[in-house]
Amino acid sequence: MPKKSDASQANSTIRIRGARQHNLKNLDLDIPIGELTVITGPSGSGKSSLAFHTLYAEGQRRYVETFSPYVRQFFDRMDKPEVDRIDGIPPAIAIEQKNTIRTTRSTVGTLTEVNDYLKLLYPRLATGYHPSTGEPVQPDTPASILEWCQSHLSDETILVIFPIPVPKDTTPEELFPFLNSQGYLRILLNKKVLRTDSVPALKKLPRKIHVIQDRIKVTSRNKSRLTEAFENALRLGKGRCQVSDPKFKLTEFNTTWSPLRQPTSSLFSFNSPLGACPTCRGFGRIIGIDLDKAIPNHLLSIKQGAIKPFQGERGEDCQRDLLRACREIQLDPKTPWNELTSEQQHWVKYGERTPLSALSSLEQSEQLWAENRWYGIQGFFDWLETKAYKMHVRVFLARYRAYTTCSDCQGSRLQPDALHFKILDKTLPALWHLPIDQLVDFFEEVAQAHAPLDKSAKLVLDEVTSRLNYLTEVGLGYLTLDRPARTLSGGEIARVNLTTCLGSALTHTLFVLDEPTVGLHHRDIHRLTKVMHALRDKGNTLVVVEHDEAVMHQADNLIDMGPAAGEAGGTIVAALSKRQAKKKHPTSQTLPYLDGTKSIPVPKSYRKPKAHLSITRASVNNIKNLDVEIPLGVFVALTGVSGSGKSSLAHPIIYNNLARHFGIVTDEEPAPAEITGLNELAGVQLIDQSPLSRTPRSTPAVLLGAFEHIRQLFALTPAARARELTPGYFSFNSGPGRCQRCSGNGFEKVEMQFLSDLYLTCPECEGSRFTKAAQEITLNGRSITDVLKFTATEALDFLDTLEVATRKEELHVAKAQNALRPLVDTGLGYLRLGQPLNTLSGGEAQRLKICQLLTDTRGSINTLLILDEPTTGLHFTDIEILLGVFHRLTDAGYSLLVIEHQLDVIKNADHVIEIGPDAGTKGGTITFTGTPKQLAKRKTETGKALSAPHAPPKKVARKKAASKSQISLTGLRHHNLKNISLDIPLQEFVVVSGLSGSGKSTLAFDVLFSEGQRRFLDSMSPYARQFASQLEKPDLDLIEGLPPTVAIEQRISRGGGKSTVGTVTEILHFLRLLYAKVGVQHCPQSGEAVISQTPEAIGEQLGKLLTKHKSLRLLSPVLRGRKGFHREYAEAATRAEMDEIFIDGELIKTEDFQPLARHKAHDIDFVVGTITGKKDAPKVISRALQYGKGTLRALTPKGQLTTFSTARVSPTTGESFDELDPSHFSFNSPRGWCKTCRGYGHIVASRYDSKAFNSEAEAEIHEEKSRAKTDPADTKVCPDCFGARLRESSCHVFLKGKLSLPALSALTVQDALKKTKSLKFTGRDLEISRDILPEIVQRLNFLDQVGLGYLQLDRSATTLSGGESQRIRLAAQLGSNLQGVLYILDEPTIGLHPRDNTALLGTLHALREKGNSLLLVEHDEDTIRAASHLIDLGPGAGVEGGEVVYQGSKLTGKNSKSPTIQALKNPLVHPSRGSRRKILKAKKHWLQLKGCTLNNLDNLDVQIPLGRLTVLTGVSGSGKSSLMRGCLSVACEKKPKKTPYDKATGFENFKYRYEVDQSPIGKTSRSCPATYVKLFDHIRALFAQLPESRMRGYTASRFSFNNREGQCPECKGNGRIKLEMDFLPTTWVDCESCFGQRYNPATLEIRYNGLTIGDILNLNIKTAAEFFSAHPKLQKTLQLLADTGLGYLTLGQPSPTVSGGEAQRLKLVTQLTKGRPKITDVGPTNTNLYLIEEPTIGLHQQDVARLTDVLHRLVDEGHTVVVIEHHMDLAAEADYLIDLGPEAGPAGGKIIAQGTPEEVAKCKQSKTAPFINAVL
């Protein structure tokens, strides 16, 4: 095997050239791969622009391109960065401080995958307990039953019994003779032993009869007999049996977990229908009575009235009952609620009810009340719910309704059965409730208690503990696994995601982190850097935007951006690597702080507090009965380790209580606390990092009030006064001076579907937001637009130089300056006055809120300001500026309470409060109050950080990376893989080979691809994940070192009747987008381009329409072809007072609107109004055009629609056209297809009719199927679209040079590439096409490179050869230029000529040289020899495979078990039979076709010998399929209507023609190999002939799983049941009634040679051939299947799971077994013609030899076999070889050589000859 060339130097860096995103100044830089690089610099200097908007955007975009366009549209569509080029970038994952998670299904446990491992651990280690008795439950075996009997019934005589059900209405007279006939002699009934040979006098039979299997004494001598009795009893009792002692006391045994469900991983997942609580569907909460609302004040005692609903007349009886119950259990009712234990509080809430009771909550409450026991607050509300028919009761209950804990699962989210399994006496939900640091200790106990663990359990436990340790290392040990992810802060979610990435073991990935130290105490930062180093050492690249000094010191590389913010930034002022000696970087503002030459000054003295805010008995979260005093009038820092309770004190305790006091509305209830000193404050204000605005309408100048004064100044200019303009004229939100086209936004949004949306500069105002008339008014030479472009600093300079003439102007200038100056003071001077607020970061938004305070301090003195980590995103210089602002605010009279970890902020505070000592339950107490200097002397965590000397921390030595990166798999048991473990080298060319069915695809696709993509997806948008394929998690213990994966699989189908080269390669997706966005609509009648028209002109046309109709509804199109619920449109219509909406062609009352089907595309129009005459028309027209953005539609009373547009009207005919949309260019959409042919390009005799079907979709599916079966001769080109497939108006949309989409699609790939490259756009069209054209050119280029340049884009996919289809899919996937990806390919040489293999291997090697890894499932010898590593699976197929029989880089292995090594060492000898059949020259022995002209066939004349094996060869696309499928197949028809040849002779010799291709053999699980090859009919007949079947009257139909009579009633013969639950993926599980056997119990009682009909279906074909050896008809077919390499398939395997190659061989066997007459008896006229296309697909060399033998057998029987094949071993077996070529497409279609393989091998012109010669 060749050695991999050393490309490591080229792939060691990410190379960025010409980065210009945002304020970046054309940067060129290299970022080392596999290292930790920190990007720092002042706020606004361009750090995020480089890290996120350039690096991450490009890395993620390139990987997401490998997904389908449908899935891509749901991902975060980041803009393509402004950069010349980026080389060597791996797939990128961003870890940001954004928490966009909204679902409660996502928890810390699910995010970190700890839950995934816990659900694997519980089935392995948990003990089940009986729900009633509490005794351990486990499945019984004959050995365990024997052991129990020996310990409990030693030397006793026992009865071994098994139960059988008694059918309804069965009499003793019927039952006893039947039992006796079956050999059952005795039964146990009512503690009596009865014989079955006589019928006892019984009135009624029980539902179950206990049959005595044996009566035996329990002794050691009888051990084997006892074991046999237990085995038989369990078998006959279907897993159940009983043992009776001499007193007839029965002990039951069960081979299942009854009464529990079997513990599987799904049972312990609330995200699976199997495990989720059916009541709350796994959410843990339902809308119900919130008992916490019944106890609003936790400081009150029960006696004082803590239970609020008990204090009125309605609940006074309950109060008395509660006090009585308290006395009975000795609970002091005078104890405040917050001092009661959690158990006591639970008792008050829920009473003395039994957990997991079978009774409902109401039934339990009534029972407790009747027994005079405490029924709980829950019981009170249960009783009230029965009175809810009364209005006043419903009103009362509404006060207490909220999302509450599910009463059925008690918030555990799981099924009741899951709660009966425990590890060390803890259920899984109990573990979820524990803090993570406690869980670490718990699992140490588990490891000790269950030692020694088996290998798989140890691996799972190690994964759990490692992930938990990662979480504690990043300071999150206080979190619980059931903490909803949506409640995490930005810093917490970032660190959770960081540990998730580390735990997922992804490698070769670029991680871009946004300030991971946010919210982290100084104590934990070194632990965080340790985690980042661990992620780096796994082979990943980390780019971190960070300001923390400790992180910078621990980085491998440092990039310092600057020198300042905004336009003054965007350059690299310092770049250091590997702690190199620091050069002088005079412009760097970071390095002086790092080396200690500069620091933030500390105040010399501290302010004295003016008063105190006293807080006592405060309790919330981990804070219990806290007492603390907050000094007022000073700067107070609130600090402590992460999770200690700082935010709990500041938010729910202080802010929420003060907000309620000052009348401020908050979303959350205040926490219980007693607060005094409120009179010392005038107000409270929370200044956090929440967004200031979600729209671009608000800007810094508007928010701070400066823009109001600037507008006043413009209104006071002479020009404005001359035109009598008011300040409102200069408002871009509502003024008449704003641009009407963009409504003052300055841009227009262009939706780009699966590309990121574009925001283009408005062409009318050119981004200025204002009209030209408004811009003509200038102030000191500057227009209003110019002023909005100023930064705050520039604006202040401008206002300073402004010459004012009046006192009024002077006043407005001063007010504008006062409003803007705080921006500069807080370090935000780089913000532009017109910058939309929704583009600001959290830190910028927080500082802007501070600016609001600084602009006006009147009336704000004595206000308490609460700031939550205001230094987030701030550089050292920015922190210094911010501290100056804090001191200024304090001096102005504010009281500041700042939550902060940054040491410089703490040092500058007047007073410090530290909460600790640790996080979670170990925190929540005050560990220090005093000055910073006093704190520095204490040994608290913050005190130690303050007192530490300023010195760079010691650099952590980097762990040596493994000598060779690899993927490590351990304990792989998926499908037939037998617990294998192996290492797969990365950045190598790896081939996985082995016999068909040995487990290759399972390893490559079901494990490596599935897991690699799933792990990457898990790091991305939760919203997007639900639209990607639901990838099953494989069954394995551990997989490490796995990079992101891309799969290029075989597709069984070539697409539907509408699929073309353009659609399969996705080129058409981008062309549709291009035509919709930059195409120009032309009038189909006149050919002229459309123009705009006025609303008045539209009014005139509507007036003409009104003459025909009394009234017209005017509609505004607001949504086209978008999926979703779309509630917002109904809400907007309601606000606009519109009574009706037009949705998907139906009028709906706005008030009756219901959320739409989420996953269906919808059209929505607003019904703006109805016009009946010309008087009311102008106003309604104007409004309709406004909402429809220049387009309206008129709806007549009869339902006819007419479109009118101000922008798209024919100047000749006056016809209006719809706004262009990509769907208008899709022949798969009703919006785009030609109405006559419905997008097919041709018409058929039968007409489309949807009335006979349940839905339009069902009708379209039926139409496609029927068209596929239609004879091409019965079709004709559509008379309306002439084959273009699109509607007329879409065919008249042109690009430059009158180029329509149908015309472009008709070109070959090479011509289309030239035409596309020649397209030149300018202005707005250039911006739109910037991202689209490269996508088209790239895909066309790749098609040309792999030799498909001759294909036309509109060529139907059904006419493509196998080789063409495979390379098209390759071209569609390999377009993205990535590094570090694992590409997994499924036999890429399929359909390729050996000559083309060389080019393909070159492409794959080039892909690997870019730093990627290749793993190919392949049998091709050249490919195996070209690989650098081989993994061979075997030794057999199916259950005989699944083992690694060889692995290595040398093919000289001596392993005799390796079928691939043996095949390479012992090539096949040709001809295998020693000689070839003689080719007879007489004309009667030949088939002849003359003048074949189909597709590229060049008037071809061809002769094929009868009764021989003929193989067609030639390069891919040379015409082989056209000849065989298009000509030979047609020639066999009796009366072909249209022939693609001139003459055909010799075909009258055939009775039948059989075509064998790779199309699916079935689309439902009801079809299987046994049914397809008609074996099952014979097997059913065999079962029906058995004596017991005949006695019972069972016919063959009884044994069909499609027949109600015999099928399982639960699963209806499927063997599986589909579980569906809202919000969860659909799951298939084995039917619990028949255990996957498909049949009902009565049918399964019939056995043939010990096997039931269900057992037969589970046999593999090889075993079945041996089993039915006594039945020649069955055995012959089964052996034939085994001979073709299908012995590993089971008879009942669902057809949808069968590959294309397997389907083809099944079809081949089916044809072989159809009739197969004896030629000698019947004569030559009854022979058959077999047309077989590439039968060796998916076959190993051993299987090829078997297949060849089968084909020879066919020919031996007198049949003629024609095979298309590229496998030279099969071609060398041919009697006659026909080689087509010389090239593909138009350059092919000729016969280059024909004759025996030896003769063809001598032809110098043949491309096949060298390869045939090599194997002969």
Structure description:
The chain is of the alpha/beta class. Helices cover 33% and strands 18% of the residues. The strands form 17 sheets. It has a six-stranded mixed beta sheet, with helices on both faces. Strands 10-9-11-8-12-13 form a six-stranded antiparallel beta sheet. It has a six-stranded mixed beta sheet with strand order 25-30-31-23-32-33, sandwiched between helices. α56 packs antiparallel against α57. It is globular and about 115 Å long.
What does the largest sheet look like? 6 strands, mixed
Mean pLDDT: 84
Shape estimate: globular
Structural class: alpha/beta
- As residue ranges, the low-confidence spans are 1-9, 960-964, 1026-1030, 1621-1625, 1718-1724
Would you kindly provide a brief summary of this structure?
The chain is of the alpha/beta class.
Task: Give the helix/strand layout.
Blueprint: E1 13-19, E2 27-32, E3 36-40, H1 47-64, H2 69-72, E4 85-87, E5 92-95, H3 108-111, H4 114-125, E6 127-129, E7 136-137, H5 142-152, E8 157-165, H6 172-181, E9 186-189, E10 192-195, E11 208-217, H7 223-236, E12 240-244, E13 250-254, E14 285-289, H8 316-328, H9 342-350, H10 361-370, H11 376-385, H12 391-398, E15 401-405, E16 421-422, H13 428-433, H14 436-449, H15 455-473, H16 490-504, E17 510-514, H17 522-537, E18 541-545, H18 549-553, E19 557-562, E20 571-577, H19 591-594, E21 611-620, E22 623-632, E23 635-640, H20 646-661, E24 674-676, E25 683-687, H21 700-703, H22 706-715, H23 718-722, E26 747-750, E27 758-761, H24 772-775, E28 778-779, E29 782-783, H25 784-789, H26 792-800, H27 807-825, H28 842-855, E30 863-868, H29 876-891, E31 895-899, H30 903-908, E32 911-916, E33 925-930, H31 932-936, H32 941-947, E34 966-972, E35 980-985, E36 989-994, H33 1000-1018, H34 1022-1025, E37 1038-1040, E38 1045-1048, H35 1061-1064, H36 1067-1078, E39 1080-1081, H37 1095-1106, E40 1112-1122, H38 1127-1135, E41 1140-1143, E42 1146-1149, ...
Parallel strand pairs: 3-18, 3-19, 5-17, 17-18, 23-31, 23-32, 25-30, 30-31, 36-51, 36-52, 38-50, 50-51, 56-62, 56-63, 58-61, 61-62
Antiparallel strand pairs: 1-2, 1-4, 6-7, 6-16, 8-11, 8-12, 9-10, 9-11, 12-13, 14-15, 19-20, 21-22, 21-24, 26-27, 28-29, 32-33, 34-35, 34-37, 39-48, 40-43, 40-44, 41-42, 41-43, 44-45, 46-47, 48-49, 52-53, 54-55, 54-57, 59-60, 63-64
Helix pairs in contact: 4-15, 5-7, 9-11, 10-11, 14-15, 15-16, 16-17, 22-27, 26-27, 27-28, 36-44, 37-39, 43-44, 55-56, 56-57, 56-59
